[in-house]
Design a protein that fits this description.
heterodimer; A: about 575 residues; mainly alpha; 21 helices; about 80% helix; about 0% strand; globular; B: six-stranded mixed β-sheet; four-stranded antiparallel β-sheet
């Protein structure tokens, strides 16, 4: 036991030290990961302020605290998905640690503690302001309420982690090692979409509770895990009748059950399975299997790729960039897992909005009788006016999420676990690196952007049956995505896949995306209120697309000799 | 000390090891030879518990690697082929961390780190510097030190000379001889015949997951009169020299090997 705890301490300490010592290629005192983590902390703190203010509405305290904890849980879930999956799997540890006399339980516990450390620090940063605001408004002892809120926040973050770890461990136990990476990637994409849709649903749900004007929490709250933990500060601050204590017991019970099952059943064999996954070579695929995998949604796709490549990338350097990106997209799970959810997100959000609201064409001018009726006659059954607006606006916001893809793409294109192979760019005897980059962009267009836009186009055309409305809806966000890319590249042009990934950078980028949702939301709202001017929207969209192309041509000059410029810098 | 009993390892349809069996006695140095993909590294992974065998059994010091992994692993020191270590740490930090995992006394551990790094010729100026900027040879010296730190009874070397300069190579050969003299059992997996020829007391040649020959260097040479170890290796493992057709010279412009006209 003593040996195990010493090993555990040593493992966690070294893991954390390494996290903050990633390579900093451009010099400076702080490593890239430290800066990224600091950014995340600050961002979470500000999100906490915004959320605390946003939930300052007339709803039962249990609902309000549950929503605050749910938001924290959502961010925690995102973080584990985008950042800390690598800690749980840690393929780099296999040949350093797994042959040493460390029990599987100890190694597994070290992983979980490592994740929990970050999860709880970030969760605390987010909840620090809401905890004070909630405690301040409680009729009973403010300090005890604040303390109870903190405990609930930590329990909530821990439970979210326990649940994610349980999912991973179950996959590890039951999925064949050669398929595990694909299964994890799929889980990541699915969970990401579920989390975003859940996030979208919070606003309307809160409004319904507020409109109902009931002092009791709604029934659906019982199914929200964050609400189970929210019982503790609610009861401490507002008295035993304010929330059912049985829910808190249920929350703690579920978290403990997850932890016990993981520790007793999954942890003893987890490391053996992880090692097996990390060192198990994937058997060679046949050409037909390869054609069916990943992006090859149609059997004709490889031929289509050749045809598309031949059309847009005739220059050998362009062709090299085009094939290079698509090969990376097929083979690099990290890239796939980063980019696919961002492309899938607008489609999932549009689908969700259509399913949650209605599939009506918002570009069809209407006197909005439903809204007027609802305004004049508010009732529980009638659609709430702002909910109707939200539902319709969400349809606009959903497609603007596409522009975020550019940011994620720009960041993902620079780093790779195989970054050492980047020497080839510095050694290549070419002075037209812009051609190579253009080829990469055609690869991005072919592999990701065009399929996503085409799918959205087909979906909306099927529902609305009006080509001009669909074009008016999609042209502007697509144009923005096209404009953003050269702009971002102008700010930070780097050699593709030639930088070592650093811890916390992915979550930093994700948070940056969340921050960008604010200006994007303003553009989406302008688009929404301009929806009657279909022709103007189409013209504007086409103009923005054209500006994107022109900007790309302009930026090309600055990246023409990129690897050589970087080589001289270093 | 090392016992492999009918070890089989399959990856899907590919059979990497086909019933490999051998024993290595205390103080013996076994050269484990084979061309790329013969199953050398797979054997090392099974012996160290990095992977479970599909069938068969591996024992270290009498402990079954599958059922008594901690007892078996306490006896092992491994120099992996990849040379993996935590590059964000300094050599001293990394080795101290390894010492903590084995519960070595901190004072004794510091002394041993000092001795090992000095023995392996790692300049004292870099002991407290992060390994991110180290050359491959410098990192390999730290990897070897990390394998020896807890004074293991069994040493498994998987291509240990990767990246080492001449001086480093000589030092590792000396180290292997010294360890063997102290009673340490060594499995030296490599495809470099000259080193194996010089340091190993016994040789196993592996090809396509099966043992082709097992014996001392003198025995093997006696069984193939007039042949060098390299020729025997090529004959038994089906290495390129046995091909009837010579491969195309990729730099010969007349053969248009690069597809240029």
């Amino acid at each position: 036991m003593k040996r195990a705890s010493r090993q555990l301490w040593a493992l966690v300490r070294v893991a954390v030290v390494q996290d903050f010592r990633s390579r900093n290629p451009v010099g400076g005192r702080r490593s890239r990961s430290s800066r990224a983590f600091l950014f995340s902390l600050l961002f979470y703190f500000f999100v906490g302020i915004v959320v605390a203010g946003g939930t300052e509405i007339d709803v039962p305290p249990h609902v309000r605290i549950a929503v605050l904890l749910a938001v924290a849980g959502t961010y925690v879930g995102f973080n584990i998905l985008v950042e800390y999956q690598q800690i749980l799997l840690a393929p780099s540890d296999v040949e350093v640690l797994y042959w040493r006399p460390i029990a599987s339980r100890v190694l597994f516990a070290a992983r979980i503690l490592h994740v929990l450390l970050y999860v709880n620090i970030l969760s605390t940063a987010l909840l620090v302001v809401p905890s004070i605001v909630v405690a301040w408004g409680a009729p009973n002892a403010a300090f005890t309420t604040w303390l109870a809120f903190c405990v609930a926040g930590l329990l909530n973050a821990t439970a979210a982690t326990a649940f994610t770890v349980l999912l991973y461990s179950l996959l590890l136990r039951h999925v064949q090692s050669q398929r595990l990476h694909d299964a994890l990637a799929t889980l990541q994409v699915v969970m990401g979409i579920i989390i975003v849709i859940g996030y979208q649903a919070v606003g309307p749900a809160l409004e319904r509770v507020q409109l109902a004007g009931d002092s009791q929490a709604p029934a659906w709250l019982a199914a929200l895990p964050a609400a189970w933990f929210a019982v503790l500060p609610t009861v401490v601050g507002w008295g035993p009748g304010a929330a059912p204590l049985s829910s808190f017991a249920l929350g703690v019970g579920v978290a403990v059950a997850c932890a016990v099952y993981t520790a007793r059943v999954l942890a003893p064999t987890a490391i053996v399975r992880l090692a097996d996954v990390a060192v198990d070579p994937v058997p060679p695929e046949s050409a037909s299997t390869r054609a069916r995998r990943g992006f090859a949604l149609l059997p004709e796709v490889p031929r289509m790729q050749r045809w598309f490549g031949a059309c847009v990338a005739r220059n050998p350097l362009k062709k090299a960039g085009f094939d290079f990106f698509l090969a990376n997209l097929r083979g690099d799970r990290r890239l796939k897992v980063t980019l696919l959810p961002v492309v899938a997100m607008p489609i999932a959000l549009v689908l969700f909005t259509l399913l949650a609201g209605n599939g009506d064409d918002p570009y069809v001018p209407s006197p909005a009788p439903g809204v007027e009726a609802a305004e004049s006659m508010p009732s529980n059954d009638a659609p709430a006016p702002s909910s109707a607006l939200q539902s319709s606006f969400a349809l606009f916001m959903s497609v603007y999420v596409l522009a975020l893809f550019t940011l994620t793409l720009t960041r993902s294109l620079t780093s790779s676990p195989s970054w050492r192979a980047g020497w080839v760019f510095f050694a290549a005897p070419t002075r037209r690196f812009d051609l190579f980059y253009t080829g990469i962009l055609w690869g991005v267009a072919y592999g990701l952007l065009l399929p996503a836009v085409a799918l959205l186009f087909a979906l909306l055309l099927f529902l609305w049956r009006d080509l001009s409305h669909v074009v008016a809806h999609l042209a502007l966000p697509t144009g923005l995505a096209l404009v953003a890319f050269p702009l971002l590249l102008r700010v930070e042009a780097e050699v593709p896949f030639a930088r070592e990934p650093a811890r916390h950078e992915r979550s930093r980028d994700l948070l940056l995306s969340f921050a960008l949702l604010v200006p994007l939301g303003s553009i989406a709202f302008t688009h929404y209120i301009m929806r009657d001017h279909v022709v103007a929207l189409i013209v504007a969209g086409c103009a923005v697309c054209a500006i994107g192309v022109m900007l790309w041509v302009a930026v090309n000059r600055s990246i023409r000799n990129l690897p050589h410029a970087h080589a001289f810098e270093e | 000390m090392i016992e492999a009993a009918a070890l089989v390892k399959r990856y899907g349809d590919v059979e990497a090891l086909r019933g490999v069996s051998f024993r290595v006695e205390r103080g013996e140095i076994l050269g484990y030879l084979g061309p790329n993909g013969a199953g050398k590294s797979t054997t090392v992974k099974l012996l160290t518990g990095l992977q479970p065998p599909t069938s068969g059994r591996a024992r270290i010091g009498g402990f079954d690697v599958a059922t008594q992994p901690l007892e078996a692993k306490r006896l092992i020191g491994l120099v992996p082929e990849s040379g993996a270590l935590y590059e964000a740490l300094t050599p001293v930090e990394y080795l101290s961390f390894v010492g903590q995992l084995y519960e070595l006394d901190p004072t004794r551990c510091r002394g041993r780190i000092h001795d090992l790094l000095e023995y392996l010729d790692l300049e004292t100026g870099v002991w407290e510097r992060r390994m991110q900027g180290f050359s491959k040879g410098m990192k390999q010296r730290v990897v070897i030190a990390a394998a020896l730190l807890h004074d293991p009874e069994v040493l498994l070397f998987d291509e240990p000379l990767n990246g080492l300069d001449v001086q480093g190579t000589v030092r590792v050969k000396q180290l292997i001889a010294d360890a063997s003299a102290r009673g340490c059992t060594i499995l030296y997996s490599s495809h470099l015949l000259d080193v194996v020829e010089r340091v190993c007391s016994r040789i196993i040649m592996l090809a396509a997951g099966s043992i082709q020959v097992d014996g001392s260097l003198a025995d093997i040479l006696a069984r193939h009169p007039g042949a060098t170890l390299e020729e025997i290796f090529q004959r038994l493992t089906g290495a390129p020299a046995d091909r009837s057709e010579q491969p195309t010279d990729p730099f010969d412009p007349s053969q248009e090997a690069l597809g240029r006209s």
